[in-house]
Amino acid sequence: MAADIKVSFIVPVFNVEKYLVRCMNSIVNQTLREIEIICVDDASTDDSPNILRRYASGDHRIRILHSGEGNVNMGQSVARNVGLKAARGEYVYMVDADDWVELNAAKELYEFAVKDDLDILYFGFYPEYEDEELRKKFEKRMFNSRGGACIDEVINGQAMIKLQMENKALYGTIWAALFKTAFLQGRRLLFDEEIRMEDSLFSFQTMLYAKRTKCVPGFYYHYYRRRISVTTVKFTEKQLADLFMMAVGELRVAVSCNGVLPEYTEYIARWVSGELLGVKNIWDENNEYINEKNMIYSEPWKNLVFEIFKRIVRREPLLRKFTDDEIQKLKETEHLIVYGAGYVAGLTLKHLHQIGVDRFKIAVSNIGINEFFMGNKIYSIFELCKKNPNSIVLVAVMPDKQEDMVAILESLNISNYFRMIL
């Protein structure tokens, strides 16, 4: 660390030309002059790099680093880690490039932190919105900034978890906190680079290990919600996976931490379980984005726990309900085919047994190494349909696979079929 740098600002930058000047002006004009401003360009394709260069040309405190590989955007986690590894200040202040800070933030927060030799200093923030529609959407969900969690006492990070929870104050953010650089580096605390929604996991780790924390009631940060941002866009499957992985990461950190104090176990458990339940609720609301594809992470344990969670939250498919007349036809036909040999086919066989239909054959488009399914011989759909063109076929697969199978049936002039999952 450089003796003359008191605070290192870390600003990840990716295609924020519309907001970057506001953010940079709020930092370069800080009343505390002994700062460095580490701007990490993450393969921006707009005018953001030029804006940074203009600022750097007139201010020696600004350092422009890069986290993108060629033209590939690597995400905030990677960008923040680049900044953290390069930080030379006594304390670190992480700012998102579409947000801004009060001009006296670094000076006052640094003085508070140094006075009590803090590992982490928490403070208040102002929520800001791009338009009224966003304000109405998020204002009701907006949390108490810090509230009663601000007491004139230095406490450890686990006690801070309890204090912030009891006062319904915001926790799990990194932009409303000042971190001692030596504390982060000593604990080797960095962001998980495979997870894009990483604030909560990083915050959780720092709070578990911090020995000296405090919260001040002042408001120093402006948190800006805009329409196109990581925290407002519709979910993709990767984002849903990352939300889950963040929660599991917190569980993993808590379990492996030897320093969890008994009096705070309940609150640490509430944090982790709350994250997991929150992820499940989000998954329930965004189920259309989730399919059975494997999300490939570089660490095997992540793939394992993700597969486990998919099975926990996966909705049971709703099988078709046959009318009495349809059930009678299924019982009378001599050529009933269950088209499929997987999860839905298994549910279909159980249902057929329940309604008293025990005469059928299993068919697939391509016969593999398995010759039997649940004790039944597997046939070729082409063979059975050509032999018995009046067959009734139950298409027993998930909806995303049905169209190809229906196309095959229609090419075989089979019109008497039922989709088992609607």
Task: Give an overview in words.
By secondary structure, the chain is α/β, with parallel strands linked by helices. It folds into three domains: 7-233, Spore Coat Polysaccharide Biosynthesis Protein SpsA, Chain A; 234-315; 324-419, NAD(P)-binding Rossmann-like Domain (Rossmann fold, 3-Layer(aba) Sandwich). 41% of the residues lie in helices and 18% in strands. It has 15 helices and 14 strands. The chain has helices at residues 20-28, 48-57, 76-86, 105-115, 132-139, 157-166, 181-187, 199-209, 237-256, 265-285, 300-313, 324-332, 343-354, 381-387, 399-411; strands spanning 7-13, 35-41, 62-66, 91-94, 100-101, 120-129, 177-180, 213-225, 336-339, 361-364, 372-373, 376-380, 392-395, 417-419. The strands form two sheets. It has an eight-stranded mixed sheet with strand order 3-2-1-4-7-6-8-5, sandwiched between helices. Helix 13 (343-354) links the parallel strand 9 and strand 10 (361-364). Helix 8 packs parallel to helix 9 (237-256) and helix 9 (237-256) packs antiparallel against helix 10. The protein starts with 6 loop residues before the first strand and ends with a strand. The relative contact order is 0.09. The model has no long low-confidence stretch (mean pLDDT 86).
